[in-house]
Amino acid sequence: MTSTTSTTSIPPQDQPRVIFAGAGPGDPELLPLKTHRLIAEAQAILFAGSLVNPAVFAHCPPTADVADSAAMDLETLCDWMITRVKAGKTVLRLHTGDPSLYGAIAEQIRRLKAAGVPYEVIPGISSFLAGAALLGTELTLPGFTQTVILTRMSGRTPVPEKEALEKLAAHRATLVLFLSTGMVEKVAEACLTAYPPETPAALVYRAGWPDQQVIRGTLATLPEQVKEAGINRTALIYIGDCLQGQGEDSLLYHAAFSHGYREGHQ
Q1: In what residue span(s) does the Tetrapyrrole methylase domain sit (predicted)?
Q2: What is the CA 172 to chain-centroid distance, rounded?
Q3: What is the residue extent of each domain of the chain?
Q4: 3-state helix/strand/coil string of 74-115
Q5: Does residue 237 contact residue 229 with C-beta atoms inside 8 Å?
Q6: What are 121-141's pLDDT values in tens digits?
Q7: Which CATH code fits 127-244?
Q8: Which of 82, 42, 85, 48 is nearest to 67 (CA)?
């Protein structure tokens, strides 16, 4: 049996292509430098208008061809990109956060490949990282958990049965849920099969935007708190003991811990 190795090469910089770029969580100052430069040089920009803050590309050239993909279906937005690349333009496709997480880029890439259009992907700061920063917490807290599970409740996009929230909750790791705020009661119900009711829980709404908001509670109280706040989308749910901030010290900086840059001592 032989094995093959497949690699994806980045097109030459002067070759028209589609660049999928993470536009960060919303704060223009959390935009990657590379993406900031590409916006300043952009010939065409297609952005997810329902999620990407327009402030992140306010510095794009006035001559840039800019369109909002919010009202487009998959075939329309892919045709928009393909048409412009074949006309000699590089298209900057701006996704919220990091495009590798719930970015729906795989289906776009498949169509670009079928059309013979080159592409590349530039990472961005995910909203779950911006949310953790806003909460002022370490998600991998020594003494509590060294695992973070990123997931979502099943909706229009189904979740495989092996990844049902009750099964993931059984690990008692830090949980971060995308695209699930409108089902926060079901989230709590599923997690209460494994976590105690007093487990710290929080919701972060639009981290990085001017109207960002944090709701802190417990697994038992969060659904009612979110309902009272009137939030049903564009938010992340955090569940886990890491949110209480108490735990053991990491061994990394322990005086007795030796590594390549420091000799430990008792």
Answers
A1: 17-222
A2: 22
A3: 18-122, 127-244
A4: HHHHHHHHHHHHHCCCCEEEEECECCCCCCCHHHHHHHHHHC
A5: no
A6: 999 999 999 999 999 999 999
A7: 3.30.950.10
A8: 48
Phi then psi for 118, rounded to 5 degrees? -70, 160
44 phi, psi to nearest 5 deg = -150, 140
pLDDT at 164: 96
Mean pLDDT on 246-262: 56
Q: Are 240 and 150 in contact (CB under 8 A)?
A: no
CATH code: domain 18-122 is 3.40.1010.10
- What single letter denotes the amino acid at residue 205? Y
pLDDT of residue 50 exceeding 80: yes
Task: Estimate to the nearest angstrom the gap between the alpha carbon of 217 and the chain centroid.
Answer: 23
If phi > 0 it is left, if psi is from -120 to 50 it is alpha, else beta; for residue 72 that is beta
Closest CA to 46 of 14, 72, 16: 72
pLDDT digits (tens, 9 = 90+) for 142-178: 888 999 999 999 888 899 999 999 999 999 999 999 9
* pLDDT tens digits for range 189-234: 999 999 999 999 999 999 999 999 999 999 999 999 999 999 999 9
91 and 19 Cβ atoms separated by less than 8 Å: yes
Q: How far apart are CA 171 and CA 11, in angstroms?
A: 42
CATH fold match for the domains 18-122 and 127-244:
no
- The CA-atom distances, in angstroms, between 45 and each of 60, 61, 68 are 9, 10, 8
